[in-house]
Structure to design on (356 residues):
């Protein structure tokens, strides 16, 4: 049992469990699955700056902050107690491509050669950590949701605006990963 | 906010909130704050799945956008199917919450933000290899530098709020 749990889980197990979060949140209290809104709640709670978009009673949405806090705890628990400690198997073509940019350490979930406090002092690290994070925060709110709110909750509820958003998420990702990221990685 | 029909103190507030993935359905029940721990529990399960299925891996996201691995498509596809069946059943049988309240759905309205913002988020997703949920899970696994990415994402959200009136929607 422990042996099975410590292996990487297959997509159908993970997908089914994530799909079940939708009814779980609805049944527990009529809450709609969505994560990026938390970034907005944090703004509303900490730096509302008299901006109308952040002037709402964020405490009513505090369930969402508990939810995201749980994700953090879940990440900690699985890294501490459920880990396999084996490096992630990655596609040979990707490994070859990344090696050309000097990325050879595949041991973590995140490439330590790109994401670390030290890399903040390089142009590449600055663009990826600060620029990438900024785009995630700005883009999700502009789109009104992220992978959870649009791609999973929105599509589950057959909302066509969510389908458009999801297509744009994927299109943006394809353009960045294939046409722009190579230039950033070669910096 | 005692009930659903009350006029919201700030009309823009309801409008803005309904555009979002937030819960605009006010609960009439007053629960002690610690009832929120049930959402913490769901979040923990979610965080464990994120890590164990390598959804928070930067490499898996790169493979997805290079069509090198079916994994992420399988995860998201299965999640949508299971979610859609659940929503269908909840609507069909008019299932109530565990506290006996009605479960409600709000239709999302189309605006251009879903295109422009969607593309911007796509760019960020491919760079950071993470959407907002996985960022928190990555931080949880002990990659402390991801806190910088999260802070930058909060700054991005704030900047959107600041510029919102000037952006095409």
């Amino acid at each position: 049992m422990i042996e099975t749990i410590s292996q990487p889980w297959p997509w159908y197990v993970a997908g089914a469990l994530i799909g079940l979060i939708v009814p779980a949140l609805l049944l527990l209290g009529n809450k709609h699955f969505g994560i990026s809104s938390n970034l907005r709640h944090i703004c509303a709670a900490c730096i509302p700056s008299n901006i109308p978009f952040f002037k709402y009673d964020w405490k009513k949405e505090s369930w969402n902050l508990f939810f995201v806090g749980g994700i953090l705890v879940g990440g900690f628990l699985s890294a501490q107690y459920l880990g396999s400690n084996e490096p992630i198997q990655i596609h040979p073509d990707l490994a070859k491509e990344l090696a050309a940019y000097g990325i050879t350490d595949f041991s973590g979930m995140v490439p330590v050669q790109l994401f670390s406090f030290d890399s903040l002092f390089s142009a590449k690290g600055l663009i990826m950590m600060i620029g990438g994070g900024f785009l995630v925060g700005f883009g999700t709110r502009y789109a009104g949701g992220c992978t959870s709110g649009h791609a999973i909750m929105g599509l589950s509820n057959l909302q066509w605006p969510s389908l458009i958003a999801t297509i744009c998420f994927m299109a943006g990702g394809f353009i960045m990963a294939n046409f722009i990221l190579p230039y950033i990685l070669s910096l | 906010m005692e009930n659903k029909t009350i006029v919201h103190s700030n009309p823009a507030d309801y409008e803005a909130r309904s555009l979002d993935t937030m819960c605009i359905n006010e609960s009439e029940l007053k629960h002690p704050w610690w009832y929120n721990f049930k959402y913490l529990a769901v979040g923990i399960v979610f965080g464990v799945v994120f890590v164990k299925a390598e959804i928070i891996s930067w490499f898996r996201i790169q493979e997805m956008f290079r069509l090198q691995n079916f994994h992420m498509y399988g995860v998201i596809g299965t999640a949508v199917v299971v979610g859609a069946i659940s929503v269908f059943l909840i609507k069909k049988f008019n299932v109530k919450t565990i506290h006996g309240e009605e479960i409600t759905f709000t239709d999302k309205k189309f605006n251009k933000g879903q295109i422009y913002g969607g593309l911007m988020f796509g760019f960020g997703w491919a760079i950071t290899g993470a959407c907002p949920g996985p960022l928190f899970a990555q931080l949880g696994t002990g990659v402390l530098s991801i806190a910088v990415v999260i802070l930058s994402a909060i700054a991005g959200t704030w900047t959107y709020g600041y510029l919102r009136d000037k952006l095409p929607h």
Q: What stands out?
A: The mean pLDDT of chain A is 94. Chain A touches chain B through 136 residues (CB under 8 Å). Chain A has two domains: 1-85, 116-187.
